Amino acid sequence: MLKLFHAPRSCSLAAHIALEQSGLDYDISIVDFAQSEQRQAQYLKVNPKGRVPALVTDQGVLTENPAILMYIALTATAAKLIPDNPFELSKVLSINAYLSSTVHVAHAHGHRGYRWADDESAIESMSRKMPENMAKYFEQIENTMIEGPWVLGQTYSIADIYLFTISGWLKADGVDINLLPKVKQHREKVAAIPAVKKVIDAQ
Ligand SMILES: N[C@@H](CCC(=O)N[C@@H](CS)C(=O)NCC(=O)O)C(=O)O
């Protein structure tokens, strides 16, 4: 059985939703950030990066959201979480790479600037710029990445799951979602999916 190492309200929500929608058998193991469990030896044996998500499979451990989401989608073909068409599938990868490498990193500058700098004023400066960067990147998403109603138009995919997860941080990041009508509508539509509701309620 698959086992997801997950921290509530973190980016590992995406893998939790994908697992719930996949129909695969899975188990959740909570990593308690309040106790810094992600940095303790027991968890570092699972994921030496000290981050969630980590997905334990019968072939080994997978880390990184885009890889985990793709694994779930490719394993649970009946759930149709990725398109068959190569161009459309590559668009899913493109959006998920953008979310992971650009948007998530910009968000992390808000509270985890110590990853990139030691200097207090540099950390403070990164944190100050975070809302502006998140607003800029989400404007790109609003204008170029949501065909509507789903990211790929009529085809729901793991790009919707990942976008939903990261757009859930906008309020706390100081970005007004009302200025992003497509993103807002997308959030509402994903949130209404019963499997998503179930996962959110469980958080
Ligand atoms: N590139 C990684 C980022 C994972 C990541 O940064 N996860 C955060 C939660 S959203 C984390 O585990 N933070 C714990 C920490 O920094 O100590 C991915 O997409 O999976």
Structure description:
The chain has two domains: 2-80, 3-Layer(aba) Sandwich (Glutaredoxin); 86-193, Glutathione S-transferase Yfyf (Class Pi), Chain A, domain 2 (Up-down Bundle). It is built from eight helices and four strands. Helix content is 53%, strand content 9%. With 203 residues, it is of the alpha+beta class. It is globular, with a radius of gyration of 17 Å. Helix 4 runs antiparallel to helix 5 (120-144). The two termini are 21 Å apart. Strand 3 and strand 4 form a beta hairpin. Residues 10-11, 38, 50-53, 64-65, 100, 104, 112 line the site of glutathione.
Secondary structure elements and pairings:
Elements: E1 2-6, H1 13-22, E2 26-30, H2 41-46, E3 54-57, E4 60-63, H3 65-75, H4 86-111, H5 120-144, H6 158-167, H7 181-191, H8 194-202
Parallel strand pairs: 1-2
Antiparallel strand pairs: 1-3, 3-4
Helix pairs in contact: 1-3, 1-6, 1-8, 4-5, 4-6, 6-7
The structure holds glutathione.
CATH architecture of the largest domain: Up-down Bundle
Sequence of secondary-structure elements? EHEHEEHHHHHH
Beta strands, count: 4
Look at the helices and sheets and give the structural class: alpha+beta
Rounded mean pLDDT score: 98
Number of domains: 2
Ligands: glutathione
Could you say which overall geometry the principal axes of the C-alpha atoms support?
globular
Low-confidence stretches: none
Widest beta sheet: strand line-up: 2-1-3-4
